[in-house]
Amino acid sequence: MKKVRISNTPITTEAELSTLAGIGGGALSSFTGIVRDDGGVTAIELEHYPSMTEACLSRVIEAATARWSLLGAVVTHRVGIVPVGDPVVVVGAASLHRAEALEATAFLIDRLKTDAPFWKREHYADGTAKWVEAKLSDDTRSERWA
Amino acid sequence: MKKVRISNTPITTEAELSTLAGIGGGALSSFTGIVRDDGGVTAIELEHYPSMTEACLSRVIEAATARWSLLGAVVTHRVGIVPVGDPVVVVGAASLHRAEALEATAFLIDRLKTDAPFWKREHYADGTAKWVEAKLSDDTRSERWA
Amino acid sequence: MKLVYFASVREAIGLSSEDRDIPYGARTVGDFVVWLRGQSQGHAVALDDLSRLRFALDQNMVTADALLVDGEELAIFPPVTGG
Amino acid sequence: MKLVYFASVREAIGLSSEDRDIPYGARTVGDFVVWLRGQSQGHAVALDDLSRLRFALDQNMVTADALLVDGEELAIFPPVTGG
Questions:
Q1: CB–CB of A26 and B38 under 8 A?
Q2: Pick from A26, A38, A105: which is nearest to B102 by CB?
Q3: Chain A residues with CB-CB distance to C59 below 8 A
Q4: CB neighbours (10 Å) of residue A39?
Q5: Closest residue in chain C to residue A59, using alpha carbons only
Q6: Contact B31 A27 (CB under 8 A)
Q7: How many domains does chain D have?
Q8: φ, ψ at A45 (rounded to 5°)
Q9: Are C51 and C34 in contact (CB under 8 A)?
Q10: pLDDT of B77-117, one tens digit each?
């Protein structure tokens, strides 16, 4: 079971993981990225490259399933305006034993951060907005899977 | 926020993680162990050492929060009879950035497996039952955090 | 060729996309982008530093030295920041 | 001293717990466990192989060479299998 979803409406960890949870594996691991109230941020806005995004995320999932023995993997990403406290991204992996699910989860989010065409803009209480700068640490984490 | 819970009634990933999800961190990671239909297993039965269990799990959480900068961590473990498909254990960690939550989640479940006084018995469709043997691979995974 | 822009590049140029013929002599993505700088003040600002830009040719990430041959859509954007 | 048994050890001995005086000369957990083997056929089977047993003295995991002094509760069980 491999599932990629781009959503312009609110997402929840449990809804995105529900299929994985019932897949029959002993191990289910997940990561949820949540909008943080970082220095007055009220929301983030996510732009993406529609004709490319889904294929990129599918390639990340394919790479994970090629690398680990997984029963399933999901990646769901919000686009549009996401208020503080709401999930931006949910990734999850199911496997028979825990090592595979845990490692694949870290891989999915690390690779998504560097490979998928999303851009974040932070909105502040005073009405201003600022594009988020890419972090070198994300490249480093993504490259350790190479 | 550090929470340990031993439950003799069904648990769900989402309920155990709900506090962590609202804690204000940008990163929430979790692992759920689910009873697997492994060669005719219908349920597992979990015995534990009540006067010791909670303290052991608290020490595992303390070790995680000493090692990583976490906003919160939870460990919930079922005891009693748990049917195939139901969660046995849920661990989760919240942090500002993803590396900490992801690593702490792996640490929590790896250490729980070797340090906490739980014993599993598999029940089969034919009415027989068998104690699960400890796995050397669990020791190996736990020791890599030493 | 169809050019598509995202995030800060889109904002600086003031366009989501535009159609441009590949200029004479431009063989690589980088050649094309350097030429685009001359098209407006916005292009000049947005495309000033190749090292801070990323490119996708027909929806595949490429580097500035990728050949343009047969490409139909070139996307130009800052490093991605999803997740 | 209170002895508590879990899982396959509990089943083989047929008791969840019992009170036993520490026998003369037993200084360590291992000494006590070796002596316990003589108490019944169940004890003999359950406690046959020290290397396959784990111990907790007053709810702290210890090895067989831990001293019994001042301990109030000794738990004997197989390697844990939770999670």
A1: yes
A2: A105
A3: 49, 51-52, 55
A4: 7
A5: C60
A6: yes
A7: 1
A8: -115, 130
A9: no
A10: 999 999 999 999 999 999 999 999 999 999 999 999 999 99
Distance in angstroms (rounded) separating the CA atoms of residues D75 and D62? 10
pLDDT digits (tens, 9 = 90+) for A41-75: 999 999 999 999 999 999 999 999 999 999 999 99
Please report whether residue C82 resides in a domain: no
- How many angstroms away from the CA of B53 is the closest CA of chain A? 22
Range(s) of the domain holding residue B95: 2-143
**How far off is chain A from B21, nearest CA to CA, in Å?**
8
Using DSSP bridges, classify how beta strands A80-83 and A41-48 pair: parallel, antiparallel or unpaired.
Answer: antiparallel
Domain harbouring D58, CATH code: 3.10.20.30
From the number of C-beta atoms within 10 Å of its C-beta (0-12, 13-18, 19+), residue B47 rates as: buried
Q: Strands C2-5 and C73-77: what pairing?
A: parallel
| Residue recorded with tokens 């070139």 | C74
The pTM of the full predicted model, rounded to 2 decimals, is 0.95
Q: CA-nearest residue of chain C to A51? A: C59
Q: Kindly identify which residue of chain B lies nearest to residue D55, measuring between CA atoms.
A: B117
The pair of three-digit structure tokens given for residue A15, joined into one six-digit string: 């809804």
D66 inside domain: yes
Residues in B closer than 8 angstroms to D81, CB to CB, are 113, 118-120, 131-134
Residues paired with residue B129 on neighbouring β-strands, in sequence order: B123
